Amino acid sequence: MMSLPALALMSLVLGYLLGSIPFGLLLTRAAGLGDIRTIGSGNIGATNVLRTGHKGLAAATLILDALKGFAAVLICATFGPIAAIGAAVGAVLGHMFPVWLRFKGGKGMATALGVMWGLSWPVGAIACAAWLAIAAVFRYSSLATLLSIVIGAIAAWLIVGDWRIALAITVLVPLVWVRHHENIARLLNGTESKIGQRS
Q1: Where are the domains of the chain?
Q2: 72 confidence band (pLDDT: 50, 70, 90)
Q3: pTM score, two decimals?
Q4: Checking CA distances to 41, which of 4, 51, 113, 158 falls within 20 to 30 Å?
Q5: What share of the chain is helix, strand, coil (3-state, %, to 5)?
Q6: Considering only CA atoms, which of 101, 18, 30, 32 is closest in space to residue 65?
Q7: What pLDDT is attached to residue 1?
Q8: Distance between CA 185 and CA 113 in Å, rounded?
Q9: Is 85 left (phi over 0), alpha (psi -120 to 50) or beta?
Q10: What is the pLDDT of residue 53?
Q11: Closest CA to 48 of 27, 71, 73
Q12: What gap in Å lies between CA 108 and CA 16, rounded to an integer?
């Protein structure tokens, strides 16, 4: 029988490999739009794909980035909660730092939402609802991300019975916030782009 550290490491690696699939880059290249990293924020995520004006591609990127996190957790959850947690963290790290793109990936929110759905669907639903509500009111994707990931972590501690899962979801908060440090600076000085705005 595999030891817990070995199981966690195996799940982390599997999650990382799934999370590192750069769907935003692959979809925009397949659509003949070139390298998404050369426009807007240079990010491979759905928000930057939206800046190409192709809403369908942006939606597909969002869904696929979330699904890869969700799939990683579900696959590894068959081996227990420790494996699911390892896969969750690995998937988000893979999206943020994919080896295929010299460790320059996305900011992780869609994948984080996916792993939250996998670890605890009520937490995932709460975080998604929070993102949609905040984005609808303020029109800033980054602000919606920063606040909804915190709301998801708080919800995890309130409604998830396993403290290890709540802790894993909480670990996502600093990861996502650090990757959004430039957005935080722009929000503070009033220069952040709104949803749908090309930059």
Answers
A1: 4-189
A2: very high
A3: 0.92
A4: 113
A5: 75, 0, 25
A6: 18
A7: 65
A8: 23
A9: alpha
A10: 80
A11: 27
A12: 12
